[in-house]
Automatic annotation (TrEMBL), chain A:
Entries under InterPro entries matching the protein: FAD-dep_OxRdtase_2_FAD-bd, FAD/NAD-bd_sf, Fum_R/Succ_DH_flav-like_C_sf, Fum_Rdtase/Succ_DH_flav-like_C, SdhA/FrdA/AprA, Succ_DH/Fum_Rdt_flav_su, Succ_DH/fumarate_Rdtase_cat_sf
Protein keywords: Cell membrane, Electron transport, FAD, Flavoprotein, Membrane, Oxidoreductase, Transport
Compartments, as annotated in UniProt: Cell membrane
Origin: domain of life: Bacteria
Organism: Pedobacter cryoconitis
TM annotation in the entry: none
Gene Ontology cellular-component annotations: plasma membrane
Residue span(s) of domain Fumarate reductase/succinate dehydrogenase flavoprotein-like C-terminal: 525-658
Protein name (Swiss-Prot/TrEMBL): succinate dehydrogenase
UniProtKB/TrEMBL annotation, chain B:
Annotated keywords: Oxidoreductase
GO BP annotations, alphabetical order: aerobic respiration; respiratory electron transport chain
Species this chain originates from: Pedobacter cryoconitis
Protein name: Fumarate reductase
UniProt cross-references to PANTHER family, sorted A to Z: SUCCINATE DEHYDROGENASE, SUCCINATE DEHYDROGENASE IRON-SULFUR PROTEIN
Length: 659, 256
């Protein structure tokens, strides 16, 4: 079995990282110049890692499947990024961010990793501002903050509803600077299709040039995957169309364990599905829950227009069930509560699979404040609404416009209709404290790894983790591996391992084309998505999961015998790209169901109907399941479970309550 | 669930690769729902083509929520179609009528060569950024973020310039295929911020030089770029860039 040790440094929680960082072996500048590092993915984690490693002197090659590193899906993150700056003087601290994250993750994350994340969070904001990232400011010129779910402090930094875009463009600028200086060689429209292993260590990749179809061999002393999450296994998700698990799955099949695959985040506030043609779902930022109140009618199947339903006939169910956190409960809790109301028959809209997100009360409140600022005394309701609307527009204008574009309804007049949708995957490649997978020299960063969010990620923590891993963790931790690799010369690309890896990739591509069946890739993808959403989605049970496993195995057989991919492998062929990704999603889907079936408890985003409290809350089983499930790939789509026990030495593990 | 009843004629640019000669090809498509996005209509078309054993239309797209900047269709003579302030992926079929004929072409500019069908090569934009669209600060060198207060209006202006998604609609719509709106947006963002001052004049000279080297045209102030920009990037940025560019000749002792 591969090395399966979390390598958490000894010592007090608060000094683990500082001590490790100062005792980490260094690599001298002359040696760095001869060390080559392959970075796959150019989102927050990949771009920040590639730029920083190049600044340090390593020779970096960076790959992305998009036409530019600036298009990585990190760009779509809307709401914000957390940091324990305590700029608002509301009692925030590194410990509190650490605590909130562990609790938010329902006690299924590693203490040491999460504490490190909280420690470096403040450096991220400093770094981004220094790069010229235009985060939101107050009139005094200082940075502004807002609240996100699962916390009672204001620690979220933002740039209107485009925080991910601005942070990614910051990392992209840093990356382009290194490209301009020749320190990073960038390969756009390239997709990684295999990890090359030599004597047990990751030594490079096989990548396909998506324009010419040519397969390329690239050597690296180490390989870093910052390739994002696998939410598209559900077909419909808030992920970009190209987001995929392929790089991570190839790594998994080469020996990297997959951690907590069933931990999926269903985001509570997305625009509902409108029809069978739907190709993706659009998120409405969680930041809207700062100012929006969520409700459904008290009467079942109420046909009235939302604005015609009087106050006392509305059920603000989050405020009712969770008075302490109200509309700002964590995502998993908010999603399940919406599902519960809709399943009970109180849903709204044509499909009845939606709830209202209403800004009226806060629009009026803001209007009253504005009126006072403008010396308007005793303003009437209309004046308040008019003035308040401008405030709402400044805060969320782009989101409101986006909503109107998609639904054809104006959210300034009518409340938004929202429903939960797949958004993020907490699971990912298992990594140790140094972000190394179980394959030596192969690392996973950002959403591609499993490490920091446990069973549920708090809002505004994904950007934080991606940049923490890329800017502040990997540049240090990679030293402990590289320092032992100085004698390794660049391995020639005609090494049998490269030849063999390329041949295996080509065989798969040829196979896709040669099936010449009757169904398109999307047909299989949609079918897989439906199985996953219905049986491994917001609520799961043993019966459904067992059925899903059989159905997915059947689907896999059908896929490999009845797939139709037009065109050839030596040209620009997006259908061929999709085929490879869906083939991997089908195998991953099965593993997700196996993992969900194995975990006989409810925690965070993983809700097993058999395990709930009388009030319908998630019921954990800390005695038997306080572990990370790390799955090892065995031949022929079989998996073996390994367990990493989670030890909570600094936090008292408790029933998670937001009441 | 909505079922569609729109019938449309599409005239789509098909081109096998960057060496082949392209042409407009007619396609009939039916049962389109007004709730579909424009790209979902293309998904339906491609599914039909695949089932008929034909090659699907290749087009760039990714996030499908108007932020990644990948989608790039020239629809009825306008980049991103008939509506203002949105990208192709945010365009919905309710903006069209039953029976319409829709012409779809790729971005056309010397610096954006066609790769296949509706996909073009926009890496020239990356090279313009690599020439100077950054602040030279290595990781780990930053001071506390609040040690540098920035007036809100200035930060807001920088943010507005930074909203550019690099889609290239400005180039596609410009009769000169000029990239001045794109280039000036990045130059402005950084010139408006105190962090951007040390490299301000060096930056404008290198980025403009790269822009010219890529083969983009000049600006003749028609303003089409601003009108078609899905993110509302203002022409004022071009004025600011020009001001800095000429100032650099006088103010800066640095030769770039």
């Amino acid at each position: 079995m591969a090395d399966f040790n979390a390598n958490i440094p000894e010592g007090e929680l608060t000094v683990k990282w500082t001590k490790l960082r100062s005792s980490m072996p260094l690599v001298n500048p002359a040696n760095k110049r001869s060390i080559e590092i392959v970075v796959v993915g150019s989102g927050l984690a990949g771009a920040s890692a590639a730029a920083t490693l190049a600044e340090m002197g390593y020779k970096v090659k960076c790959f992305c499947f998009q036409d530019s590193p600036r298009r990585a899906h990190s760009i779509a993150a809307q709401g914000g990024i957390n940091a324990a700056k305590n700029y608002q003087n509301d009692g925030d601290s590194v410990y509190r961010l650490f605590y909130d994250t562990i609790k938010g993750g329902d006690y299924r994350a590693r203490e040491a990793n999460v504490h490190r994340l909280a420690e470096v969070s403040a450096n991220i904001i400093d770094q981004c501002v220094a790069q010229g990232v235009p985060l939101a400011r107050e009139y005094g010129g200082l940075l502004d903050n807002r609240s996100f779910g699962g916390t009672q402090v204001q620690r979220t930094f933002y740039a209107a509803g485009q925080t991910g875009q601005q942070l990614l463009l910051g990392a992209y600028s840093a990356l382009e600077r290194q490209i301009g200086m020749g320190k990073v060689e960038m390969f756009t429209r390239h997709e990684m299709l295999e990890v090359v292993k030599i004597e047990g260590k990751a030594r490079g990749i096989i990548a396909r040039n998506l324009i010419t179809g040519e397969l390329e061999r690239h050597f690296g002393h180490a390989v870093l995957l910052g390739t994002g999450g696998y939410g598209n296994v559900f077909y419909l998700s808030t992920n970009a169309m190209g987001s995929n698990v392929t790089a991570a799955w190839k790594a998994h099949k080469k020996g990297a364990f997959f951690g907590n695959p069933c931990f999926t985040q269903i985001h509570p506030t997305c625009i509902p599905v409108s029809g069978d043609h739907q190709s993706k779902l659009t998120l409405m930022s969680e930041s809207l829950r700062n100012d929006g109140r969520i409700w459904v009618p008290k009467k079942k199947d109420d046909q009235r227009k939302a604005t015609d339903i009087p106050e006392d006939e509305r059920d603000y169910y989050l405020e009712r069930r969770y008075p302490a956190f109200g509309n700002l409960v964590p995502r998993d809790v908010a999603s399940r509560a919406a599902k519960e109301r809709c399943d009970a028959g109180y849903g709204v809209g044509v499909s009845k699979l939606a709830v209202y997100l209403d800004f009226k009360a806060n629009t009026e409140r803001y209007g009253r404040i504005e009126a006072s600022v403008h010396n308007i005394h005793n303003p009437d309701k209309e004046t308040c609404m008019r003035l308040g609307r401008d405030v709402i527009k400044e805060k969320y204008g782009n989101l409101f416009d986006m909503y109107k574009q998609i639904t054809g309804e104006d959210p300034y007049d009518l409340p938004m209709r929202i429903y939960p949708a797949v958004h993020y995957t907490m699971g990912g490649l298992w990594v140790d404290y140094n972000l190394m997978t179980t394959v030596p020299g192969l690392y996973a960063l950002g959403e591609a790894n499993f490490s920091d969010h446990g069973a549920n990620r708090l809002g505004a923590s994904a950007l934080m983790q991606g940049l923490a891993d890329g800017y502040f963790v990997i540049p240090y931790t990679i030293g402990s591996y590289i320092s032992k690799e100085l004698a390794t010369k660049a391995i020639p690309l005609d090494h049998p391992a490269f030849v063999e890896a390329e041949a295996s990739v080509k065989a798969i591509l040829d196979k896709f084309i040669s099936i010449k069946g009757s169904k398109s890739v999307d047909f299989f993808h949609k079918k897989l998505g439906k199985i996953m959403w219905e049986k491994c989605g917001m609520a799961r049970n043993a019966k459904g999961l067992s059925e899903a496993i059989v159905e997915i195995q059947q689907l896999r057989k059908e896929f490999w015998s009845d797939l139709r991919v037009p065109g050839s492998i030596d040209e620009f062929n997006p259908e061929l790209e999709k085929a490879g990704r869906v083939a991997d999603f089908i195998e991953l889907g099965e593993l997700m169901c196996i993992d969900a079936l194995n975990r006989n408890e409810s925690c965070g985003g993983h809700f097993r109907e058999e395990y709930q409290t009388e009030e319908g809350e998630a019921l954990r089983d800390d005695e038997n399941y306080a572990y990370v499930s790390a799955w090892e790939y065995k031949d022929d789509v079989k998996f073996e479970l390994h367990k990493e026990e989670l030890k909570f030495e600094n936090i008292k593990i408790a029933q998670r309550s937001y009441k | 669930m909505s079922t569609g009843n729109m019938n449309l004629t599409l005239k789509i640019w098909r081109q096998k690769n960057n060496k082949a000669k392209g042409n407009l090809v007619d396609y009939k498509i039916s049962e389109i729902s007004p709730d579909m996005s424009f790209l979902e209509m293309f998904d339906v078309l491609n599914e039909q083509l695949i089932n008929k054993g034909e090659e699907p239309v290749v087009f760039d797209h990714d996030c499908r929520e108007g932020i990644c900047g990948a989608c790039s269709m020239y629809i009825n003579g306008r980049p991103h179609g008939p509506k203002e302030g949105i990208t192709t992926c945010q365009l919905h079929m309710r903006s069209f009528k039953d029976g319409d004929t829709i012409v779809v072409e790729p971005w056309r500019a010397k610096a954006f060569p066609v790769i296949k069908d509706l996909t073009v090569d926009r890496t020239a934009f990356d090279r313009i950024i690599a020439a100077g669209g950054f602040i030279s600060v290595n990781t780990g060198n930053a001071q506390d973020a609040n040690a540098l207060p920035i007036p809100k209006f200035q930060a807001d202006l920088a943010f507005e310039a930074a909203a550019c998604i690099g889609c290239g609609a400005c180039v596609a719509t410009c009769k000169n295929a000029s990239a001045m709106l794109f280039t000036s947006a990045k130059i402005s963002q950084l010139a408006l911020l105190p962090q951007g001052q040390p490299e301000r004049y060096r930056r404008v000279q290198s980025m403009v030089a790269q822009m010219d080297a890529e083969g983009f045209g000049n600006c003749t102030n028609t303003g089409a770029c601003e009108a078609e920009c899905p993110k509302g990037i203002s022409l004022e940025n071009i004025a600011r860039m020009n001001r800095d560019f000429y100032s650099a000749k006088f103010v800066s002792e640095e030769e770039v």
